[in-house]
Write a structure and sequence with these properties.
InterPro entries: LSM_dom_sf, MS_channel_1st, MS_channel_C, MscS_archaea/bacteria_type, MscS_beta-dom_sf, MscS_channel_2nd, MscS_channel_C_sf, MscS_channel_TM-2. Its main location: membrane. With 348 residues, this protein is α+β, with helices and mostly antiparallel strands. Among the domains are: 188-243, Roll (SH3 type barrels), CATH 2.30.30.60; 251-331, Alpha-Beta Plaits (2-Layer Sandwich), CATH 3.30.70. Helix content is 60%, strand content 14%. The chain has 11 helices and 8 strands. The protein has helices spanning 2-8, 11-42, 48-75, 80-116, 118-121, 123-152, 158-174, 176-191, 233-237, 265-278, 314-331; strands at residues 199-201, 207-213, 217-222, 228-232, 242-243, 251-259, 289-295, 300-308. The protein starts with a helix and ends in a 17-residue tail after the last helix. The mean pLDDT is 79.
């Protein structure tokens, strides 16, 4: 009995027993994650849980093992200085593994979010942004890890942190416009105001199709000129945008047509409605409408309102409708007026 008691109070036995308990627990959790949780995750429709479990099993195993090692060292009759050095080494390794896990989860979150934004920024831009965000995040995590480890080992990092802060302020002021555009691009991607392929109209009047959404600028292919409009993202963030692709790609068109005074109003309406019904691209629901809007100086003005199934074909459909309306009105004997002016001369 005395032998058992002496063994139990022996510091080396306590250290070894503690390490064995933590080692067995780490092995159990590792096998549980590897053989049970991962197999269960493979049955789920998403691959996200598979990726997480496959990447965290080894770090979790080593974290538990290091925790057991740190506790076991406290039982050993070692000099305080040696214990302090060993403890700092173990904590440094724990910090490295912890930073790795944090960086992994943040990178996975960013990748998952950008994957959902593929329609907004495109596949190629999506891959570039994922790679760029990974490099920036890993760089930031590396800087933080170095600062934490230096502080752990008693190195004064106040001057280093202050220098980094001053450098950040200087860089921010020098790149103020660029950073505003970058943050504007990030905000546009997060907000999902538009995506590649959408037809938008800017506050300045330019209209076109979105062909690229970058971090610094957005590129628009003009419908009127066919050229490329490059707009800084900070400007887009602070301006009003009309997106004809939301909530649907259908587009409402209003076309004004004038006929001569004396024309039969009902006949004009019926003719214009038949023209709209004959064009395949014009939707039947909602049905086209014709309104008598004005008795102008030279003509009776009508407004035809209809919806087309694709906003990208707006000019083509408009051309078809106006051409067909002119032919039908002429065939019905309805005249299209032109501006006239009557001049009276007084004889003396």
């Amino acid at each position: 009995m005395e032998l058992v008691r002496s063994v139990l109070i022996n510091p080396y036995f306590k250290a070894a027993f503690t390490f064995i308990i933590f080692f067995a627990g780490a092995k159990l959790i590792y096998r549980l994650i590897t053989y049970t949780a991962i197999r269960w995750a493979r049955k789920t429709p998403t691959r996200l849980d598979d990726i997480i479990l496959s990447r965290i099993n080894a770090p979790v195993y080593y974290l538990i093992l290091l925790a057991g090692t740190a506790i076991a060292i406290n039982f050993l009759p070692l000099p305080v200085l040696v214990k302090g050095v060993l403890s700092r080494i173990i904590v440094s390794i724990i910090l490295i593994i912890s930073c790795y896990l944090v960086a992994f989860f943040l990178n996975l979150f960013i990748k998952t979010y950008l994957s959902k934004a593929k329609d907004v920024i495109g596949t190629i831009r999506q891959k570039d942004l994922i790679a760029l965000s990974r490099k920036l995040l890993n760089f930031v995590m590396l800087i933080l890890l170095v600062i934490f480890i230096l502080a752990l080992w008693g190195v004064r990092v106040t001057a280093l942190v202050a220098s980094l802060g001053i450098a950040g302020i200087v860089i921010g002021l020098a790149l103020q416009t660029t950073l505003a555009n970058i943050f504007g691009g990030i905000a546009l991607i997060i907000d999902g105001s538009f995506k590649i392929g959408d037809f938008i109209e800017l506050e300045t009047g330019e209209a076109g199709e979105i062909i690229d959404v970058g971090l610094r600028s957005t590129r628009i292919k003009s419908f009127d000129e066919g050229n490329e409009i490059i707009v800084p993202n900070s400007s887009l963030m602070n301006s009003k945008i009309i997106n004809y692709g939301r909530p649907e790609i259908c587009l409402k068109r209003r076309i004004k047509i004038g006929v001569a005074y004396g024309s039969d109003i009902s006949k004009v309406k019926q003719t214009l409605l038949k023209c709209a019904e004959e064009i395949e691209e014009i939707l039947k629901d909602p049905a086209p409408q014709v309104y008598f809007t004005e008795m102008a100086d030279f003509s009776l003005n009508f407004e035809v309102v209809f919806w087309i199934n694709d906003y990208k074909r707006r000019l083509e459909v408009q051309d078809k409708f106006i051409s067909l309306s002119y032919e039908k009105l002429q065939a019905q004997g309805i005249q299209i007026p032109f501006p006239t002016r009557t001049i009276y001369l007084e004889k003396r």
